[in-house]
Predict the structure.
Amino acid sequence: MLTYLLEIRAWLQTGRVYPFAVFMTLVWSLWLLRVTLGRFYRPYKRRFHTTTSVVIPVVDEPVALFSFVLARIVAQRPTEVIAVINGPRNPALEQVCNQVGVWWTWTPTPGKRNAVRIGVEAASGELIVLVDSDTVWTASTLPELVKPFRDPRVGGVTTRQRILDPDRSVLTRWADWLESVRSEYSMPAMSVLGTVGCLPGRTIAFRRRILLDCMEAFMRERFLGVFLEVSDDRALTNYTLKAGYRTVYQSTSLVYTDAPTKLWKLAKQQYRWARGSQYNTLRMLPWMLRHTPVLAVFYVSDIVVPFVLIGAFASWAEALATGDKWDLYADFPLPQVPWQALVITLTLALVMTLFSLAIRFGRHFAYRPRDLVYLPAFMLINTTLLMPIRIAGFFRMAHNAGWGTRSHGYRGDARSSPLIVAPYLIGCTMLLGSVTLSV
Amino acid sequence: MSDYDDFASRRRQTAWLLMNMRPSSGQRPRSRLRLWMLVHAVLLGSLVYGVVAVVTPGLPAPPIVASLRPEPLRRVALTPAPVPVPSKSQLVHPTGKHFGVSTYKAPWVSGEIDRVAKLSGAHPTMIEYFVKWTEPFRPSAVSLCYRQDALPVMSWEPWAGPEHGLDQPAYALARIASGRYDAYITRFAKGVRDQRWPVVLRFAHEMNGFWYPWSEQRSGNRPGDYVRAWRHVRAVFDRVGATNVIWVWSPNIIRAVPGVSLRALYPGDRYVDWVGVVGYGVRELTAAATFDPTLAVLHRITRRPVLITETAAQPGPAKALWAADFFRWLKRHHEVIGFIWFERNRATGGRTDWRFTADRRTLAAFRNGIARTRLARQV
């Protein structure tokens, strides 16, 4: 924040543009846009009655958790519950379904998309609620979730998501913070416009009609010469938007889900999301630009921000290597002793950064102030883990791949296409552009 | 996720769920958020204002903040024994030759000057940099030069920069002379005065060329306008009391513009302390061939000390020869008090690779020449 201030000042005085200042300006203006839009957000209030089919694709969930998940769903009396067990047969899960009284079916074809298709075809309710097999519902998840469908223009609704028992470790805290920030800032902002770009798949409700219409494309459609199995939720959201429906967020419908507690699993999960999300951003870009430019701004900046940050790092590395260190802090009074100057600069910078993040993520930290202690760890994870993963995900988006977290999961498509180079070309251009503009 | 099979862990999860799953966790007290945002916004706001106030002299600020503002050259003055500010008269007649450089980012960064010092074997005694008329006077530039033991040579260019073309009637010399820019010039002069340290000011250089808007052949300027503009700017400085300025009138060598009269462009000894000359070795084999015709003309106009304010040699087989000859020439010419090497290439603001470090032979010739030159005392 201190650096940002001094860079802005230098920008105004000398016209020299600093990449970090660009990055911060971008981040803050997006924040402002989200907060402004989010102020208009209101959850739907009036009750709505309809028929609901809950579809749960499941591979190898631990029995105890799965039965708990099912029990909480059944307790809210949806019209029907359909568990689609895919991959090798799993007598334990079948038994859980029988005990709880949930209709189940089995398919040997691994893959979530295929399981979703089977569930959708078997369902009979007006609304289909897709639920992940590790997602725990709260007491009024379902009645809240169906409320927005009173509006016939609404085609898809998502829930507020939090992480189960986030105090377990730094990683779960981080995941919870991420979810919380998403549900407090970007979700309400996009929902106000009726265009939530990705209804997260832990629990989403769609009109059955929409899902039936898009099932064919959902199972086949390629982009950049590749059929991507992952990111099924984003794909379904895209079809709903393209069909002319609104997609909204219902903040009063709350679900809990688990987060990886191992760094490696977390990295794999984030990599999968990074690929799927950026793949779908490129894919939807022409449509978004025509119909929902604000959404395009959000998603394109999601892609661009890590690249700008790389540029900022490059310029700092250059400054370190060439010893160009004075210009920025030259007008700032610091003690003559170098270590004192360093300590003062760092402390001031840290304190200012702390306050500015406390503001930018206020809707999370105000209610979980103890998470502020973990903020340095969060930032470390963001820059050293998440950012490289997002960039790698961008480059490799057109590669074939299956799920990372399920051992019996979908293995991916064997073919690849020459279009695989497209993301590499775009990515290299952005990387080079960012670095050469900065250094 | 296999943690869940562990009985204890499952019990913990269940207990947590029962405790935390309220149906309306979405509705949390807004007042708490408002208070949180207010407190942090006030804290951050005051810090931001503090930082801005410290680096911006004009802003109203509480005494504790104002006391933190850097006095002119406080950091220099804080080094073990306070360094007295030299006076202009101590600097106008140096006892040795000045070795100056103009690099890409100096004086703003220290690395470039350190590198020049290391490669040439001598520490530069002058740093030349450029300031457009769209920019304010920045005392930190001066203090950074002195911190690097060099005299600041500020080329002050009355234009908005090259991107606005060669004709910039907004900065026509007659407009300057008529006082249109007095507010800016006065502010600038007060800045120079207040920081007390001497500044070498090269205003509107290469005026005899046709390649800058302040040429009398550009921007609607007419003969006589240049001298009038110069005298006016000087008068504003004198009125303000900015006496710590060494005024350098700096034409280009006459090679490219033999028909332009230097005498008609000279403001007069009353207004000028040094005569600057810009000249590069292009096709010449000797420095004499580059400079002597111009020095002969200047000699008939004024006897003020001469500073070569920009020089360097074109890449090629003759570059090292020219550089070696330059130092012999410099030694012969007692009226020349020093030179500023234009240490830049295409990427850093030069028309070609002018740097003495561009090839090994030139570097050797340069080192050798510097080693044989008696340099002016460092400031």
The longest strand of chain B covers residues 126-132. Chain B touches chain A through 54 residues (CB under 8 Å).
